[in-house]
Design goal:
With about 220 residues, the protein is mostly helical. The protein is built from 13 helices and no strands. Helix 2 crosses helix 3.
């Protein structure tokens, strides 16, 4: 009987030791995994920073500009540029990432309770407001949040076509004061966007009596 009790005690002790061993192993594995992930993340961030620092001054200025416009870090911009090696392609990628929601994220958000209609509307409003599509969608919330778009986007945030093409509201107002209609203001915005003229040059030519139709025909150096 005494031997049986001793055997049971030994079995219990062994069981406890095994449980502790597994627990300690699990903790060590978790610590090592977190440590490796942390080191990997630090390595990635360090590489991004090195990419940015390796740029010439003009490329850094471009990265800074894109970072501010597309609401992301300059290091993330640099990482994309290193991959594309073409600022035009980088700009296209950044624009797409800003104004649209990736299909895989849309799928997950729908599963989380967001409506497809709201996700699509967020993309449309992103272009009209200059706000990031994914952030607009999150601000609107899920169907159960029962929030209206008017609570998320104010009328004053909706950009006109001219503003979407790059004109400021002050510039639009100046063109309106020159009696330019909507279509003419859009034409002027396109001319400026294509670097055919600067805004000051446009105003100078308008004040000299030129029409928008004439501005479209003649380059600055030809006047």
């Amino acid at each position: 009987m005494k031997e049986l009790i001793n055997k049971k005690k030994k079995i219990c002790v062994i069981g406890i030791l095994i449980v502790l061993l597994f627990a300690i192993t699990g903790i060590l594995f978790s610590v090592l995994r977190n440590s490796n992930q942390s080191k990997k993340k630090q390595s990635v961030e360090k590489q991004k920073e090195e990419n940015y620092l390796s740029f010439c001054d003009s490329d850094r200025e471009t990265a800074d500009l894109y970072a501010e416009f597309y609401e992301m870090s300059r290091e993330d911009v640099a990482e994309r540029q290193v991959k594309t090696k073409d600022w035009e392609k980088t700009a296209e990628e950044l624009e797409k990432a800003f104004f649209t929601i990736p299909e895989n994220e849309k799928y997950q958000m729908e599963k989380d309770g967001y409506s497809l209609e709201d996700l699509q509307e967020a993309e449309r409003l992103s272009v009209k407001t200059g706000r990031k599509a994914i952030e607009l969608a999150k601000a609107k919330g899920t169907v159960s949040d029962n929030r209206k778009w008017s609570e998320v986007v104010k009328d004053s945030e909706i950009l006109t076509t001219e503003e979407q093409l790059g004109l400021t509201r002050e510039q639009v107002k100046t063109l309106e004061e020159k009696s330019l209609g909507k279509e003419e203001r859009v034409e002027v915005a396109i001319l400026i966007m294509n670097e055919t003229y600067t805004f000051d040059e446009v105003i100078e030519k308008l004040e000299a009596g030129m029409t928008v139709k004439e501005l479209k025909k003649k380059p600055v150096n030809g006047l």
